[in-house]
Design brief:
heterodimer; A: 250 residues; alpha+beta; Fumarate Reductase Iron-sulfur Protein, Chain B, domain 2; 2 domains; two-stranded antiparallel ribbon; 36% helix; B: 236 residues; mainly alpha; binds protoporphyrin IX containing FE; binds iron/sulfur cluster; binds FE2/S2 (inorganic) cluster
Chain lengths: 250, 236
C-alpha cells in the first residue's frame, strides 16, 4: 500500500519544528512502527536524517511508542499502542499525520520523541511500596477480596505511556496517577503508605505542570489499556481522606 | 492553617472548591426557579388580584427574611469563588496544554458531553456576563433603585414584577435570556455529574442515577427559566 506521511520534524528541544511530507510503500501486515522503519531505511539510504521515534518492547507492554497519529495518541484503534497498530487499518493512498505527544510537561526532544521524565518523577515521589512485606507469600496467605483484586489488577495494567495526558484538553495526568494510586491502595501491602503516597504523588504531579482534571474522559477513551476514570474518583477519595483526615500536618 | 491552604491550592483541592460551590449554585437555581414561576399569571395567581402580586410578595419575603439574607451572602460568595477559581483553572489548564497545538486532533471521550466538558470556561464566562446584567437589572434595582410601589391591603411592596415585565417586552432581551439558559444547560450537562466525580463519588450502583438526574436537571431547569420570558413576551 502507498501512503503519504506528514511527520513533525524538529532538530532539538528549542528548535522550530515543521511538518515534512514523505511517500512510503508499506505492507498491510506491518505494524505502524515497522512502516516507520521502512521509511527510515529509505531516508538513511538517501543519507537523510531518519525520523526519531521511541520504541522498546514492540508488544504493547512498555508504553514507550508515543506519537499522535491522525489526531489520536497511538492512532485510531481503541485499546492499542502504536507498536500494536497494524497498517491494514489504513487505506491505500491515505495521508497520515504524525505528531509528537504535546503537553507543557512533555517537551519535544527530537522529532516524535518527547521527554516524559515528569511521569518518572511522579512515580519516584510515591509510586512504590517501601515497607518490608517479607518474602514471597503463599498464594492465599493474604486474603484479598476478588472484586478488590480485580480493580487493583485493572489499574495495574497502566503502562505509563502518557496517552491520557496527550489526549486531555488540560494535559492532566490524573488518569495515570490515579491508576498508580488505586493499584497500590487497594492491596494490603500498599495500604500502609496509601495516605502519604496520595499526597506525595499529587504534589509532584502539580509541580510538574500538568493540568487539572475537568472530568472530560478523553483520557479513558484514548488509554491503550482501558484504564477507567473510576480510578480518578478513587484518587480524589484517597487524596481528600489523606489531606483532611490524616494526622500528619505538613 | 498551612495544611489547609496547601489543600486548597492543590489541583484536587481547587476542583473540590469548584464542585462544592457548583453544587450549592445548583440547589439555588432550583429555589430561584420555583420563585420565578410565579411571574406567569397562571401560577399561584388569584384572577381577582392584579398581576404580579404573588411574585412581589415573594420578592419582599426573599429580601427581608433574615435567614434567607444570611444564605444570600453565602450565595454571592459562592458565585465569586466559583467564577474566579474557574478562570484560574481555565488559565492553568491552557498553560499545561502548551502553546504548540496539535495539527489534527480527534476529540473522543469515554462518556458524556464532550463539547460542554471541554468548554466549561467559555460557558461559565457567558453565564457570568449574563449574571452581571441580570443582577444589575433586577437585584440592584430591588436593593437600591427607585422601584414603583404596589399596595396590597394597605401593605407597601416594591413592584419588582413591573420592572421584570418591562424588561421582557424587549424581544432582544428575551433572546439574550434564552441563549444564556442554553449556556447554563450545557454547563450543567457536564457540571452536575462532574461535581460528584470530583468529590470521589463514583459508584457502579449510583453513578448511572446521578448522570440521569444531571441530564434531566440540566434540561428541565434552564427550560423552566427560559419559558418565563417567552410566555410573558407573547401572552402577558
Ligand atoms: C448558574 C451558575 C453556575 C452553576 C450552577 C455552576 C455549576 C458548576 C458545576 C456543578 C461544575 C462542576 C464542578 C466539578 O467539575 O467538580 C462547574 C464547573 C465549572 N464552572 Fe460553573 N457553574 C455556574 C457558573 C459559573 C460561572 C459564572 C463560571 C465563570 C467562569 C463558571 C466556570 C466554571 C468552570 C471553568 C468549570 C470547570 C472546572 C473544571 O472542571 O475544570 N461556572 N460549574
Ligand atoms: S492511564 Fe492509560 S493512557 Fe495513561 S499512562 Fe496509563 S496506560 Fe497510558
Ligand atoms: S513499544 Fe512497548 S508498548 Fe509500544
Amino acid at each position: 500500500m502507498k501512503l503519504t506521511l506528514k511527520i513533525w520534524r524538529q532538530k532539538a528541544p528549542n528548535a522550530k519544528g515543521r511538518f515534512e511530507t514523505y511517500q512510503v510503500e508499506a505492507n498491510p501486515h506491518m505494524s505502524f512502527l515497522e512502516m516507520l522503519d521502512v521509511l527510515n531505511e529509505e531516508l538513511i539510504a538517501k543519507k537523510e536524517e531518519p525520523v526519531v521515534f521511541e520504541h522498546d518492547c514492540r508488544e504493547g507492554i512498555c508504553g514507550t511508542c508515543s506519537m499522535v497519529i491522525n489526531g489520536e495518541p497511538h492512532g485510531p484503534m481503541a485499546g492499542t499502542t502504536t507498536c500494536q497498530l497494524h497498517m491494514r487499518h489504513f487505506r491505500d493512498g491515505e495521508t497520515i499525520v504524525i505528531e509528537p505527544f504535546r503537553a507543557s510537561a512533555f517537551p519535544v526532544m527530537k522529532d516524535l520523541a518527547v521527554d516524559r521524565s515528569s511521569m518518572d518523577r511522579i512515580i519516584q515521589a510515591g509510586g512504590y511500596i517501601s515497607v518490608n512485606t517479607g518474602a514471597a507469600q503463599d498464594a492465599n496467605a493474604i486474603p484479598v477480596d476478588k472484586d478488590t483484586a480485580a480493580h487493583s489488577f485493572d489499574a495495574a495494567a497502566c503502562i505509563g505511556c502518557g496517552a491520557c495526558i496527550a489526549a486531555c484538553p488540560n494535559a492532566s495526568a490524573m488518569l495515570f496517577v490515579s491508576a498508580k494510586v488505586a493499584h497500590l491502595a487497594l492491596l494490603p501491602q500498599g495500604k500502609v503508605e496509601a495516605k502519604r503516597r496520595a499526597q506525595a504523588m499529587v504534589k509532584q504531579m502539580d509541580l510538574e505542570g500538568f493540568g487539572m482534571c475537568s472530568n472530560i474522559t478523553a483520557c479513558e477513551a484514548e488509554c491503550p489499556k482501558g484504564i477507567s476514570v473510576e480510578n480518578i474518583a478513587r484518587l480524589n477519595r484517597e487524596y481528600l481522606s489523606s489531606a483532611l483526615g490524616s494526622e500528619t500536618v505538613a | 492553617m498551612s495544611w489547609f491552604s496547601d489543600f486548597l491550592a492543590s489541583s484536587i483541592g481547587r476542583k473540590v472548591v469548584m464542585s462544592l460551590t457548583g453544587l450549592f449554585l445548583i440547589i439555588f437555581l432550583l429555589i430561584h426557579l420555583a420563585g420565578n414561576l410565579q411571574l406567569m399569571d397562571f401560577i399561584a395567581h388569584d384572577p381577582a388580584d392584579e398581576p404580579g402580586k404573588a411574585f412581589n410578595l415573594y420578592a419582599k419575603f426573599m429580601t427581608t427574611n433574615p435567614l434567607i439574607k444570611a444564605v444570600s451572602y453565602l450565595l454571592y460568595l459562592s458565585i465569586l469563588v466559583h467564577a474566579i477559581q474557574g478562570w484560574v483553572l481555565w488559565s492553568k489548564n491552557r498553560k499545561a496544554r502548551g502553546s504548540q497545538k496539535y495539527a489534527v486532533k480527534v476529540n473522543k471521550v469515554a462518556d458524556g458531553n464532550s463539547f460542554a466538558a471541554s468548554n466549561m470556561g467559555w460557558l461559565g464566562t457567558i453565564i457570568f456576563i449574563f449574571l452581571l446584567i441580570h443582577l444589575y437589572q433586577f437585584w440592584l434595582q430591588m436593593k437600591l433603585g427607585k422601584l414603583p410601589m404596589a399596595y396590597y391591603d394597605g401593605e407597601e411592596v416594591k413592584n419588582l414584577f413591573f420592572i421584570v415585565s418591562e424588561a421582557y417586552e424587549s424581544l432582544g432581551y428575551v433572546i439574550f435570556y434564552v441563549l444564556s439558559m442554553v449556556a447554563i444547560a450545557y454547563h450543567l450537562d457536564h457540571g452536575f455529574q462532574s461535581a460528584f466525580q470530583t468529590l470521589g463519588i463514583n459508584h457502579r450502583k449510583y453513578t448511572p442515577m446521578i448522570k440521569w438526574v444531571g441530564r434531566a436537571y440540566s434540561i428541565l431547569i434552564p427550560l423552566g427559566f427560559a419559558v418565563i420570558p417567552v410566555y410573558m413576551y407573547f401572552f402577558m
